[in-house]
Amino acid sequence: MAFITFVLAANYYLCQIAFYNLSFPVSDRMKELKHLNKYFKKYRFKLLVGIFITIVARVFQLVMPSYVKKSIEVVEDFIKNDILQAEAKDLLLQYILIIVGAAILSGFFTFLMRQTIINVSRYIEYDLKNEVFEHYQRLSLDFYKKNRTGDLMNRISEDVNQVRLYGGPAIMYGIQTLTLFVCLIPLMFIKAPTLALYALLPLPVLSVLIYVISKIIHHRSTIVQEFLSTLSAFTQESFSGVSVIKAYALEPKINAELKALANEGKDKSMNLAKVNAWFSPLMILLIGISNIFVIYVGGQQYINGEIESVGIIAEFILYVNMLTWPVAVVGWVTSIVQRAEASQKRINQFLQEEPAIVSHTAKETPIKGKIEFKNVSFTYQDTNITALNNISFTINQGETVAIIGKTGSGKSTILDLIARLYDINSGAIFIDDLPIQDLNLKNLRQAIGAVPQDAFLFSDTIKNNIKFGKENSTDEEVVAVAKKAVVHKNIMDFTKKYDTVLGERGITLSGGQKQRVSIARALIKNPQIYLFDDCLSAVDTETEEQILNQLKKESQDKTTLIVSHRVSSAKNADKILVLENGKLIQQGSHDQLNSVQGYYKELYKNQLSKKEK
Ligand SMILES: Nc1ncnc2c1ncn2[C@@H]1O[C@H](COP(=O)(O)OP(=O)(O)OP(=O)(O)O)[C@@H](O)[C@H]1O
Predict the structure, then answer these.
(1) Same domain, 404 and 315
(2) For this UniProt entry, which segments traverse the membrane (predicted)?
(3) Which of ligand 1's atoms lies nearest the C-alpha of 410?
């Protein structure tokens, strides 16, 4: 009696804890997960079928225990000589066939259940990943500066996976458990109320303990996960920086650091393993207690004549075992819902981020290429650096303008503002005499062929890297622009020529080759405005000359901006802008600027004398 009181009290307190954990933030939790409702709505038919199948599968599962009971009763009747041997054998066979039939049907519907509900969770995962990725694509550069790449990756992979567990397994096991509870528990109480009470007593304890353990497991596995990303970031950096490591003979130092990290990782994994190890023993223990209750209390009741057959004891043992997993699932599902809520909250945070740069018009605004800066000032929000200070200039359509100035003087910033990667703080930028904000952003970006300072090439073939500028371009066009960018000969020297794969899976291009492939990519786009950001810095002066001549021909009616540190790249431009500390200190043609004292003339003299040496 004392033991029962103890178990009842334990159940009460544990249920209180679970109730507190579940009920306190329920509205908040559901608020975050509401985002998934649209997907549940989208797949409602499949979900409803899945739920129906789950119920059917469980109902078939219920057949077995009562027929086991009946089979045992047949044997009892035969022992008591109530029925003949042949009749008993017949009945036994009949019952066994029913059990086998029900088990097959239950198995079949369980298979269908997974095929429907788990598939729905995979569809939701697919949709959510696409939604997050598409949203990432819409967001402006400042978002990527604020958030670490690892975080972006985590939310689209690990967090979406946590949410998937809620959209699939949690629903599936939830329904399964509910069906079993609704059907089984009343059935048990109808058949033998006292026995039912004893059999079910330890189960809430099991449920709450599994919940507590799942939470600890999750906490520790998050630590392990986070640690693994640190470890992989470290190894990845060691691989990409392998040439520096070797050149400075840093191998022993790196090895020691990795060993220390690996040791730390081992300890964290051991911590996780320890708590994982509690899972099955606890289940076995509590189910064992339930079984012992059933056998002991059932046996006494049978002896006292309170239950009619031994079969009921066998039936109840089967019920208890049938309830084991669903009861444990209550705890597990609770922790899944909590994790899904936390993950969805993190996903929602990003989904609610609005792109800082948006198109204010949907109507088409074709671009010709006149650019005007009027008293433009611009400060980067994150660093608070004023990159441009009251800049004004005009570039007519088809003109070539060079921007020259010391490092950090704001040259690249001008190009970024023309592509509207950022919005300015004061002043105005006009493209074709229209404020840049009034242009259709898509039209603006389509009209620009930008070659950034750090040429970025994808791990793909050279051909596809160039075609990136114009997806439907032909191979002939690719070759033509590669020739103009003076990189064709280099490409033909590779064994696989234009099909040479770049990056991690393939060869590494030299800095100058990368720049020229990047130029070819801009040329194939055939845009109205070219933005070349110091993209000839890694080529020799002779090749630079050739490329500039080609570009001159190519960009005759296009507006072209060339950022450079070399006067050789600038001297043939229609106009040269000279920047210093974000201010425009000189502007004019080469001859004009070379005829007055100033930064440009000094630079020209310096570079000329270096060349002569
Ligand atoms: N994305 C950014 N976020 C914050 N600050 C930036 C960013 N880009 C540039 N800056 C800062 O703005 C200033 C101007 O940079 P910008 O890249 O325009 O100079 P630059 O003249 O092109 O230099 P370089 O010749 O070295 O490429 C620098 O002080 C730089 O540190």
Answers:
(1) no
(2) 6-24, 45-64, 92-112, 170-189, 195-213, 275-296, 316-337
(3) 18
Tell how strand 529-533 and strand 434-435 pair up: unpaired
Report residue 118 as tokens. 């788990």
- Return the bridge partners of 448, or none: 529
- CATH number of 514's domain: 3.40.50.300
Question: Do 492 and 382 belong to one domain?
Answer: yes
Identify the CATH number of the domain in which residue 326 sits. Answer: 1.20.1560.10
Binding pocket residue ranges, ligand 1, CB within 6 Å = 380, 382-383, 385, 387, 405, 407-413, 453, 534
Backbone angles phi, psi at 379, to 5 degrees: -120, 130
Residue with CA closest to ligand 1 atom 18: 410
Ligand 1 centroid–CA 408 distance in Å is: 5
Going by C-beta distance under 8 Å and a sequence separation of 6 or more, which residues neighbour residue 178? none
Q: Which residue range is the domain that position 538 belongs to?
A: 371-612
Extract the tokens encoding 220: 């520790």
What six digits make up the tokens of 41? 């709505």
- Please choose, from the candidates 412, 371, 409, 416, the residue with its C-alpha nearest in 3D space to the C-alpha of residue 392: 371
Query: Is the alpha carbon torsion for 161, 163, 166, 168 positive or negative?
Result: negative
Report yes or no: 337 and 167 within 8 Å, Cβ to Cβ: no
Contact yes or no for 556/573 (Cβ under 8 A)? no
Residues 175 and 56 sit within 8 Å (Cβ to Cβ): no
- The tens digit of pLDDT for each residue in 101-111 reads 999 999 999 89
Length of the chain: 613
Residue with CA nearest ligand 1 atom 16: 410
Phi and psi for 83 in degrees, rounded to 5? -130, 160
The total domain count for the chain is 2
Measured CA distances, 273 to 52, 246, 267, 307 (Å)? 37, 37, 10, 45
SS3 readout for 519-581: HHHHHHHCCCEEEEECCCCCCCHHHHHHHHHHHHHHCCCCEEEEEECCHHHHCCCCEEEEEEC
d(CA 603, CA 613): 15
Show Cβ contacts of residue 182 under 8 Å, excluding neighbours closer than 6 positions: none
Query: What is the value of pTM for the model shown?
Result: 0.74
CA 491 to CA 506: how far, in whole Å? 14
Say if residues 440 and 363 touch (Cβ distance below 8 Å): yes
- pLDDT one-digit tens code per residue, 247-269: 999 999 999 999 999 999 899 88
